[in-house]
Design a protein that fits this description.
Elements lengths: L1 E6 L5 H17 L12 E4 L2 H12 L3 E6 L5
Antiparallel strand pairs: 1-2, 1-3
């Protein structure tokens, strides 16, 4: 499992919206309709390529951390 945890500043709003438009483009590209999210700024995916794309995109707009882990339950 891959976890992407990002923080995009609320201001300026246009920059934040640009981040989300890009994120929606990534999700559409990979045909992701919904994902597992623990909060609005965390994505949990089982595909490293998708996780890295979201992570790299988020780094252009704020902070992001990428984690790899094993599901334990």
């Amino acid at each position: 499992m891959w976890v992407v945890d990002y923080d995009i500043p609320a201001e300026p709003k246009a920059r934040r919206m640009a981040f989300y438009r890009g994120l929606w483009g990534i999700l559409k590209e990979f045909e992701i309709v919904t994902g597992k999210r623990s909060t609005q700024s965390v994505w949990i995916v089982d595909n490293e390529v998708i996780a890295r794309r979201i992570h790299e995109h988020a780094l252009n707009y704020g902070r992001s951390h990428l984690y790899n882990g094993d599901r334990v339950d």
